[in-house]
Amino acid sequence: MIGGGIGGLTAALSLRQAGFEADVYEQAPALTHIGGGINMGPNAARVLIRLGLGEGLLREGVRPASTHQRRWDDGRTLQRAPLNPQCEELYGAPHVTIHRADLLAVISSGLPPERIHLGHRLLGFNDKGGHVEAWFDNGVRIDADMLVGADGIHSAVRAILFGDEAPKFAGCVAYRGLVPVERLADLELEIGSQSWVGPGGHLVHYFVSRGELLNFVGWTEHDEWSREDWTDRATVERALAAFEGWHPQIRRIIGAADECFIWALFDRDPLPRWSVGRVTLLGDACHPMYPFMGQGAAQAIEDGAALAACLRAAGDADPAVALQHYERLRLPRVTRLQELSRANKLRFHMRDGPGQEARDAEWARAGDRSPDALRWLYEFDAGAIESAPA
Ligand SMILES: Cc1cc2nc3c(=O)[nH]c(=O)nc-3n(C[C@H](O)[C@H](O)[C@H](O)COP(=O)(O)OP(=O)(O)OC[C@H]3O[C@@H](n4cnc5c(N)ncnc54)[C@H](O)[C@@H]3O)c2cc1C
To answer: What is the pLDDT of residues 180-210, one digit of tens each?
Structure first.
């Protein structure tokens, strides 16, 4: 497994549970504390619970009671839906919001430490037919039965398999931050997720870190950006300026942060294939998606469960056949989510006018965020491949 992010660690654990040996090679010298909140629907929480991580997930994460979509200026409700305990009742697993660092700690706790090789940046590999040889920047060389690129949006494995095309800037940057909840006590926020939509931007906030921090991510449109990094800092003043004129609750939350980070959104078109021989991809390496369905991490988690199930089902057959099966099962679902996430960028950022009025009327009539409306997404069991075509 190349990459020790959410996707790589979950896949390694899923493979071990299915009876395979799996090693993770991560370029960073430590499992990183960088990042903010991650949204996890019951489709992904179910996979982690099955891997024996339920206790850690519920200890470190938060179960939001509801999701509430509001108008940017007057705070009017556009749609509101319950999340928990409805998700548990309908789909047997909760909806969880969690800090990325806490989630990495929970998942890695399920793996023997000696299986996680930090400070290993993959430089290249060679598929020899019966096995794969790979080498790293620290001089280490390994031999493996197969190789999985779980190395994120700038994937080296993807570049070697399919060419090195840079991801495109998506015309959007986010200001993100974390605020200790005691600073916001006067707002009396429900333990839930709120999303504020307005012209050219939207802002989402929810609780993470056992409910001790409120995570916010506020998106605004920009023409140009030259780099993508999770560690770029922005001042709180700059974030406030980006949301000038928005509802006082939003300005209060941003203003209570000690620091802000800026995150530029990048995009790639869906790939027609992920696997060549004994090498495949998972997570952002093959299907990065805008976070506007809250499914980036969840789909990487599903990939790991499906990959392990396909390899187990293949038994002693050629692993290359199992990788083709995995790719066939996963591609339609993640491509659909990539497309829906792109469409949400346009829907969330509409200028006030007839289009926005039609959108608001549609949300008020039918809603699209309730556990019922998202049945196709939430009830899906990524590890149950028996009923899917081989
Ligand atoms: C530092 C960081 C912070 C993030 N913060 C947030 C956040 O706050 N909110 C959010 O919604 N999403 C965040 N994400 C993205 C989110 O984690 C992913 O979109 C999603 O979880 C899919 O995960 P993944 O495992 O496919 O990819 P990633 O999470 O990107 O993990 C890829 C891993 O591969 C490693 N890697 C890359 N190249 C190599 C190489 N050549 N050799 C070895 N290892 C390599 C990377 O160091 C990384 O650990 C963050 C990602 C990163 C890397």
So the answer is: 999 999 999 999 999 999 999 999 999 999 9
Q: Of residues 213 and 222, which shows the higher confidence score? A: 213
Question: Angle of helix 100-108 relative to helix 6-17, nearest 10 degrees?
Answer: 20
Domain extent for 204? 65-93+168-267+350-382
Q: What pLDDT, in 10s, does the model give residues 120-130?
A: 999 999 999 99
- Active site annotation includes 326: no
Question: Is 192 found in the same domain as 131?
Answer: no
Q: Are residues 179 and 258 in the same domain?
A: yes
Within this chain, do residues 356 and 306 fall inside the same structural domain, yes or no?
Answer: no
Given the residues 25, 91, 175, 206, select the one marked as catalytic.
206
Atom nearest to 32 CA in ligand 1: 1
Query: Per-residue DSSP letters for 99-122?
Result: EHHHHHHHHHTTS-GGGEE-S--E
Whether residue 256 has its Cβ less than 6 Å from ligand 1: no
Nearest ligand 1 atom to alpha carbon 299: 22
Q: State how far the Cα of 112 lies from the Cα of 114, in Å rounded to an integer.
A: 5
SS3 219: strand
The contacts of residue 211 (CB under 8 Å, 6+ apart) are 62, 181, 191
Question: What percentage of residues in the chain have a pLDDT greater than 70?
Answer: 97
Contacts of residue 356, Cβ cutoff 8 Å, sequence gap at least 6: 350
Question: Which whole-number Å values give the CA distances from 141 to 95, 124, 129, in the listed order?
Answer: 41, 10, 17
Cα separation, 137 vs 99, whole angstroms: 30
> What pLDDT digit, counting tens, does each position of 52-103 carry?
999 999 999 999 999 999 999 999 999 999 999 999 999 999 999 999 999 9
Decide: 294 in ligand 1 pocket, CB within 6 A.
no
> Same domain for 230 and 370?
yes
Place of tokens 């700690």: 105
241 and 336 share one domain: no
Answer for the pair 203, 255: CB distance below 8 angstroms, yes or no: no
Map tokens 């099966």 to a residue.
325
**Residue 176: predicted pLDDT:** 95
The domain spanning residue 201 has which CATH number? 3.30.9.30
